[in-house]
Design brief:
homodimer; 308 residues; alpha/beta; 24% strand
Chain lengths: 308, 308
């Protein structure tokens, strides 16, 4: 069993989709990552910040899953980061209606002593400055540092982002962001260019079109599970990252062969996440369901052409 | 070895992509289907029509590959069907600059006697009326009738198209067209709705995002091979259909398991087709290259998660 250190937002989300809307519910990259990773045999801790408006119930949801929250700072009199989004009819595009940074604006992450020798560090989407600060506090180079980011930081903090990218092993990013970061339309070329920036592995997330894993001249592809209904895509990318990082931390093997399995586990968990609002589905997920859906992934992708 | 009967256009294409442009070159659905199918151990014939402006060299390209062209009508004084298209920078969208039906306008297909007991019939994209006429001329119900069509016929000949759909075993169609035909956004629901129209198998082509095969409650997915460069997408869908139909005709096995392999073979051949203008790459393709790329497909998609 490995140690997984997670950095990212713990937040309130308000979501509107064609199927309904929510008030402020539990959200945030670190939350989704932590919940997904908790499906594996791993010790994990979250570094994040909330205000004292953050309900004890939500904190309990994390500790119930044995997630170490000693580095979840609770700012007295502060307000928790809030995001409000409206998804369009195809669920592939959304408008951000509100982003209130609140306590996140002045966040100084502190790596807990018991995790400064983490095996895997998952840097969830957040200001690159915070991600860099976490890397700098580690006493030992982790076996694997995984970075998730988004176009917002390319637009607003590119120098700091490039500094983080230089120091990680794996970059997970969506297709449009990979194109923006590299200026290459072909995802194969984009991945090759990202290799020159630092990472040895690149995961390009294509939402409903699956995910590509690149390493040197090797490529692996995992589809998204075709679903009858996608209810709410919020957190799907973070859930993918959490399943990916959680599986790698638990298996303590970062070979390309094992990383392929990690991509499948990430895709598998993400396929549940989108079935309900926010974290709802992830909180009720059991091992039997997960296993049955892994079977579905096998049936969906495995074929038997004899080749010599 | 089975008999494959192909119906579709044999045409001149003029193509402009961000990488270059061509004058009138060999094109047409039946051409791409026939060239792809000729990679398998199959007897095939094309039913189509051209004008006497169609060069003997192009006809030789087909007969060199043992494609029976006794039902390729050559209209004296007639002009061959011509399509001119301009691809945009992302190669995913294109403008049709010219469509000259010419001899296609009055085409009355005649099934050659030696093929009215074909094992597999591949109805390439064409007026549903022509496709229907071919079905009606068959003396024996083929083991498999495969239909490829496009949104143009949904807009302009929906009743006739529905009549053809009712009578085929497999419908191949792209994602947007599946949504248009069924009014369902979810491709899983769209496929289920298409089952009620007649076909027992549905293949939804998603271009660079791969292809989905549906049968009852079973789903199989084949990605498109991630390529450094896509040069010209013209004919990729037809090449996919030709590989799919050719493999099924050669193997004489239309089980779901075998159809999965057919989808992989179709995707494999399509990955070559897009590397050069028109049919150029398909005409120079050898078995060693095909096999090597099938290995790539395996490496791209196969993983080893132990499940009980």
């Amino acid at each position: 069993m490995g140690k997984l250190l997670i950095v990212g937002t713990v937040a309130f989300d308000a979501i509107e989709t064609p199927f309904g809307k929510t008030d402020k519910i539990l959200g945030g990259a670190a939350t989704f990552i932590g919940l997904a990773a908790s499906q594996f045999d791993v010790d994990s801790a979250i570094i994040s910040v909330v205000g004292d408006d953050f309900p004890q119930d939500y904190i309990d949801l994390l500790t119930d899953r044995k997630i170490d929250i000693s580095a979840l700072e609770i700012v007295k009199g502060g307000k928790t980061f809030f995001w409000k989004g409206l998804y369009h009819n195809d669920l592939n595009t959304r408008d951000t209606l509100a982003t209130e940074l609140n306590v996140l604006a002045d966040f100084k992450p502190v790596v807990p002593k018991s995790y400064n020798d983490a095996d895997v560090v998952m840097l969830g989407n957040l200001h690159p400055f915070v991600q860099l600060s976490v890397i700098n506090q580690l006493k030992k180079r982790p076996k694997l540092i995984i970075l998730d980011t988004m176009n917002f930081w390319m637009d607003n903090a590119l120098d700091e982002l490039m500094e983080v990218i230089k120091r990680v092993d794996v970059l997970t990013i969506n297709d449009e962001e990979a194109r923006q970061l590299t200026g290459e339309y072909s995802l194969v070329k984009a991945a090759q260019k990202i290799f020159t920036m630092g990472p040895k592995y690149v995961v390009i997330k294509k939402g409903e079109h699956g995910a590509l894993l690149f390493h040197k001249d090797q490529i692996f592809f995992a589809p998204a599970l075709p679903l009858e209904e996608v209810f709410d895509p919020t957190g799907a990318g973070d859930t993918f990252a959490g399943g990916f990082a959680g599986y790698l931390a638990a298996s303590e093997d970062s070979s390309f062969e094992n990383m392929k399995k990690a991509v499948i586990h990430g895709s598998n968990l993400a396929s549940f996440s989108v079935e309900k609002f926010g974290t709802e589905r992830m909180l009720k997920l059991n091992h039997k369901e997960i296993k049955e859906r892994l079977h579905q992934f096998k049936r969906l992708t495995q074929f038997d052409i004899e080749l010599q």
